[in-house]
Amino acid sequence: MSTTRNYGVEEIKPDPPPWWDRLEQRLRQYAPTALRVSIGLVFVWFGLLKAIGESPVADLVHATVPFVSEGLLMPVLGVVEIVLGVALMIGHPRRLALIAVAGHLAGTFLVFVNAPTLSWSDGNPLLLTANGEFVLKNVVLICAVLMLLGHRRTVRR
Questions:
Q1: Which of 20, 40, 47, 82 sits at a 20 to 30 Å CA gap from 72?
Q2: Which residues cross the membrane (predicted)?
Q3: How far apart are CA 21 and CA 11, in angstroms?
Q4: Distance CA 62, CA 87 (A)
């Protein structure tokens, strides 16, 4: 019979170097704003491409939303994306813009329902096309938006 005793030995981990704590503090302070502004820039950029009729995803968008006139869909979608992007960049209305962006990004998954042949190779949902990968990456953007929604802004006194 073997017995083992736990003598309450606690593993002591060394403290991180002081520069690391300062870096983490700065990241906590500035990363959420950088994330929000970068998502906003992407929305403005992609929105402008749609609004001026130069979007490389126009065919994908039309296939996904075939019940809206082609001449109306892209310019309106472009303007909506520009407005959302600007709202994200300036930070007002912050929560409303983030919720709208999350909804917009979730709407992109309609491509898997309305245009599956543009999303999957040979009908296999595990074999994504470039379009499918383009849409699937929005999971990461949605998670980033959710993180921003859950992040409390700190107010300096």
A1: 40
A2: 33-52, 72-89, 96-114, 134-151
A3: 21
A4: 26
